Structures
1.
Amino acid sequence: MMKKSRRSFLKVAGIAAIGLGASPAMNFASSDSDGTALAVKGKNEQALTAHRWGMVIDTNKITEEIAEKITEICHKTHNVPDFKHEVDAEKYPKTRSVNHKQEIKWIWKEEFHYAFPEKEDEYLTEKFHDLPFLVTCNHCKNAPCVQACPTQATFKREDGIVIMDFHRCIGCRFCMAACPYGSRSFNFRDPRPFIAETIPDFPTRSKGVVEKCNLCAEQLAKGELPHCAQVSEGAIVVGDLEDPESDIRALLKEHFTIRRNESLGTEPSVYYIV
Amino acid sequence: MLEIAIKGSKNYWSWIIFLLLVMGAGFIVYVDQFMNGLMITGMSRDVSWGFYIANFTFLVGVAAGGVMVVIPYYLHNYEKFHRITILGEFLAVAALVMCLLFIIVDLGQPTRAFNVMLYPSPKSMLFYDMLVLNGYLFLNIVIGWKVLEAERNQVEPPFWTKPLIYLSIPFAIGIHTVTAYLYCGLPGRGYWLTAILAPRFLASAFAAGPAFLIILCYLIRKFTKFDPGWEAMQTLAKIVCWAIIANLFFFLCEVFTVYYSNIPGHKAHLTYLLFGYHGYHALVPWMWTGLILMFTGAIFLVIPQFRNNKTLLPFTCAMIFFGAWIDKGLGMISGGFVPSPLHHVTEYAPTKPEIMITLAVYATGFLVLTLLYKLATQVKEEVRG
């Protein structure tokens, strides 16, 4: 009995080994014969590129209206659900009531002491008490979320953008625990009933995956600036942090800026002019 | 050997059917979660892990606690544990089954779970957690089964079980260390960002695991003819005693560091748990209950008259078990998320469906435990008789 099963195991193992050895050769043969295996990866000539994308937010220029406009355009163009949206009962019957604590947001306004809790100060400059501080993903140089992700569904591109593969995400939410800026949201439910108008240029998400700001990678690929920068009336500048000649570097040279919770060593790429 | 599990008394079958009913009810709720998402839970954007992960963390400890009978018996030839090592190993198996189920029910996209193996990510602690948990489960199944089979046939266990047994010891330490590393390596979570987290996890594991084992020994004495031995239970009680004291000591170290250094990001979490924070104090009664249970349990175990009291001991063990469950379960997980990194306070409480699914996972674990213990005790009865 023992001998027999041992022999059959060796047989299977042997066949498997042959298969493994042969497969590269077979792949080679197949790509050689029909020549279509190599897809041409085209790159848009107009695409905006950078060594490390970064963002400067001039808090002096952000008003309530601008902040709202920015959130609106961002969420609209990325099909981010709005739980306050009234659900179309015909299209989505039996939609259950929402839990607003499970909301999804990519860029939103916070008060200073929430955006910068480590800079708590009882004698804080008066104007800071009412200023809207826009917060979003910091596209950290040392991103804890990238490190935490067990499937590399969250990864860092060469140009510094921290981005997600919504189809690989298993929804373990380790990245949400890892993010020290609360920038990530989880789809606790199907978001589609809460999207007023679906924009076909960007995918909608399914339930059970995490999402966050992608610095409008889809816009940059088309050669256009991120939506937030476009509607910000000059309050948000996006550019290459590693290019000494860039607009963003000129701003950083000229103004005193702060980043959120810098002491953690995450190296956020979002700067605030205060 | 498996045939033993299908021959049992009326009580045995009633218990099995009860467990199956709980599992069935929980499964129906899980189907709803599977279809509609984790919206049916009390988790939120700010508290993104809840009851499932809390129970997972606690049960990793129970699984690791099994090693507290393996070390004395196999490393120090402590003969009194001969009868109960198998119980420790099978408890670890049942606890690990629950751990893995808790991970699965917590996933937003459970059908993609194998992505963890398809895209191995050596920088992610979850990757290592998957490796050690499955490794430890495998080791305990193989060891437990082979050793029991040998006992039944009255022969020596195969020679290769020995190295596996030795290997299972670092694995036991490993599962809980890596589980602590899931939390203590995250920069923005002050409550978890402490080097004592892994030692604290191990201390509470070595208390909760053996405490539960003592309770199980009582049940075995009541329902089977197999006697695990009072002396072995007494030794276990001493292990529980020192482990729970170590756990309380580590907790005090944490409290001192946090409050004396006075760093707000670290202090806020403990303050929320112990006294309430900005008017939010849902967990305060829980946390104090846990601390009082653990502290009283420790006192009852230190004093020999109380520890030797056969009527009191199971209650003391239950106190420690539930105290550790609160401390490491809800307290540890919710405490880490409240307040959020932006210092917003969003409180968390599990919903009814969440509790139903949790109970079903526990029922599954208890089913596995019942079947394995049925095997173990029956074989031991046979051999003796």
2.
Amino acid sequence: MKRRGLLAPVRHLLILAAVAALLATDAMAQGKSIVVASTTSTQDSGLFGYLLPIFKRKTGIDVKVVAQGTGQALDTARRGDADVVLVHARAAEEKFLADGFGVRRYPVMYNDFVLVGPQRDPASVTGADILTALKRIAGEGSPFVSRGDRSGTHMAEVSLWKEAGIDIAAAAGPWYREIGQGMGAALNMASASDAYVLSDRGTWLAFRNRGDLAILVEGDKRLFNQYGVMLVNPARHPNVKADLGQRFIEWLISPEGQAAIAAYKIDGQQLFFPDANDPNA
Amino acid sequence: MVLSGDAALFAIVRLSLVVSLSAVALSALIGVPLGAFVALVRFRGREAVIVLLNTLMGLPPVVVGLAVYLLLSRSGPLGSLGILFTPAAMIIAQTALVTPIIAALARQTIEDLWGEYCDELTAMGIGPFGRVATLIWDARFSLVVALLAGFGRAAAEVGAIIIVGGNINGFTRTMTTAIVLETSKGDLRLAMGLGAVLLAIVVAVNALVWRVRRAGERIAG
Amino acid sequence: MPSSGESAAPGRESLDSMRTRATDLPIRFDEVCVSRAGVTILDRVTLQIEAGPPTVIVGPNGSGKTTFLRATMGLIAPTQGRITWGGADESPPVHRAFVFQRPTMLRRTAAANVRYALRTSGLPAARCDARIEELLGLVGLGGLGGLGGRPARRLSGGEQQRLALARALARDPAILFLDEPTASLDPAATKAIEDVIRTVSSSGIKIVMSTHDLGEARRIAGEIVLLHRGRIVERAAAAEFLSSPKSSEARSFIAGELLV
């Protein structure tokens, strides 16, 4: 039976797809690689995009970053689906270690949070300290966007409300919008609805859709945000690439890695401050 | 469209096509014979299977993504394969999404055609393999349209592949997952650029559907 | 190529070798009943179909002609009773072919339809082209260059019927069944089909066909079988049936008054 000409391209596409799939898996098999579960703030700020090529050039190791919220990243590591986890929620990290899923926690760097809001500032928070600012926002019922996703940023926000003496679960009304998504999505929503939002400086600086938003509160010591990195415990998950993972951690805390972190800037501003050698971090 | 590297865009588009095309190829290999079987064999529970296939056509991608994620996680039953957060996992998830579409459409097409051909093929004493081969060949244009429908679904979805792929830069980032990322970074221009490419592909697929249908009518009447 | 009354035999082999091949004749019906959903369609039919001139089944609508033909072909199993082909209880339709009342064209060209029948009955690919040309010429569809290249579903009703005939003959049958082959055709197409049937019959192929048209029975039949309400009412050589029918139903039918 004669082949109809029209089917030939479809057949060719299918063959192409099969070959390409084989090539894709083949490429995957070659080369050393690790999976790092990290936060959306490190991804959205562009830090990894800057750091990882440097690391790869030096060691030939491919670092595959799966960017999730802190809570989800720790879950992924608990399940053994990552080799290294890099997040910014010390209490959760300590628990992770205590439960035996991590080997050791190394401080890496810090950045800070900023309170971002509409320039007309309906709750008059500009220049105040963070706790006062939050009290005023809750008092006015001004729109506030919360990530609500168990991320490091979300956990920091929740503890700030608590420190300000506000039971946010009880006080929440239509003004408090928990979206269950990452920093970028939260900023988008805040921009679209002229709301306040707590953001890490890195994501804010890299964010392009600011609308009427601007930084209104910054520099408060309570907005300090520490990142820690841990190797997933190979005793719990034998598949973890402990050697390669440890090399990545060691590079991050090495003088070279720390210098690279400090060198990353957006618009001339440094986002992350290396502090691997700080005993209090 | 401003891009920080055409190489990066090319890699993203290429991965999208590889994942979706592979998924469609696998789905066809599973779905067409499955559809033919359900169309032609009278077995107990057949009607329930048909309803099930039709229902599964509307599987929410995120649900499929979650299910495959739990399957492929190291802590899951297939964890030892170690393919979570790889293109292979994305292909598996999309195959799960697309196979019911192809199976259900193939079943409908082949059953309809069998209704027409039953008398003649039986009178010619054609055995089961001959019947299936004849039906699939004569229905090929409609089957290709079903494949293209499956491809359209796969190329457009993001819920499944972002969960099982992890949207890893340079490795599991496709057009749809990149759009999600760029949108969340507020880089809407780039997101729209990617969206335009994706739309162009969807339009091309639909144009191909049209041409296949016309060719079918012209050739087979 | 002339389509009737000439020496080119439609069969691939000579008449002699066809007759010595194991065929399904005689076909015996033994007290055969066919019922569906509680309704009796054929009622205790007993007869034997032998080689020879065409056997034509006549009867009013609903008398069971189609069911009878399908059962004789082997497409329907009897609910009671027994059908045998050349003495065998089961016989795959290798040497039989059927032309349905409304034949289904495969979604291919006319020539490809015939090719399908040829290939599935075992003809080597190399010999197909010549045979297709022959068969299409026989039924008046003009060979590979003419209507052969057109999608079969685009042919007219009469052309499709002729194509179905070519397809059936492609299987080199010893028996050819036709279910009201000219029922939906105009007089010209009817004549064309009847001419082919006569040619086929004269080459040694047994014809078993049904018709509601008494004139057609007169033109074609060697023997006539009258079915009424699922029962065989009368059976005789054609001339005898038409000039001196024995049963009241037969007389009534010939007079055009037996309607159901």
